[in-house]
Amino acid sequence: MNSKLILGLASLVLMTGFSGSAFADSTEACPAILQHTFNRLQDDSPQNLCQYKGKVALVVNTASYCGFTSQYEGLEKMYAKYADKGLVVLGFPSNDFGKQEPGSSKEIADFCFNTYGVKFPMFAKSSVRGDQVNPLHAELIKATGTTPKWNFYKYLIDRKGNVVEAYSSITTPDDKKLVADIEKALAQ
């Protein structure tokens, strides 16, 4: 390469502030576990989970016709209480257990909002186990060694993208251990 071209490229790099490490830092800022895109439940618009980087995330597989469905109310209360401190609840409707989520995205979204006032982020129906498992749940299963056993199974992810714990369906949103784990993660 001639020296003028090299000097020109070097000047361009300096003027734009681009450096290889800056580029690497921007891609590394989003933890690997959040580097997935899912369609939003309400309108099927693609949502990159990296928008939640730096937050504590409680990932929950949900269903509208389950004995645990009333947990939506507690999850929404938890989200409202801790959202300003950095908690996000991420809902993933699934028909994997007892076919208890048979509806369309619109039906599920309407049910969640009209029945429980759900405002936390919800995503289009997907599988959370088996051959068709969505990529986030595949990573959560790998990280914890535990697969969801039923609807409203929960995984807690800290601000750095580390999976903290998995919680059974019978763990309610006001469970003392779950709340303590969330508060500890929020404090870090």
From TrEMBL:
The keyword Coiled coil does not apply. Keywords: Oxidoreductase, Peroxidase, Signal. It comes from the Bacteria. Pfam families: GSHPx (PF00255). InterPro entries: Glutathione_peroxidase (IPR000889), Thioredoxin-like_sf (IPR036249). CDD domains: GSH_Peroxidase. GO terms for biological process: cellular response to oxidative stress. Gene3D superfamilies: Glutaredoxin. The active site is at 66. GO terms for molecular function: peroxidase activity. Residues 1-24 form the signal peptide. Belongs to the glutathione peroxidase family. This is Glutathione peroxidase. It comes from Undibacterium jejuense.
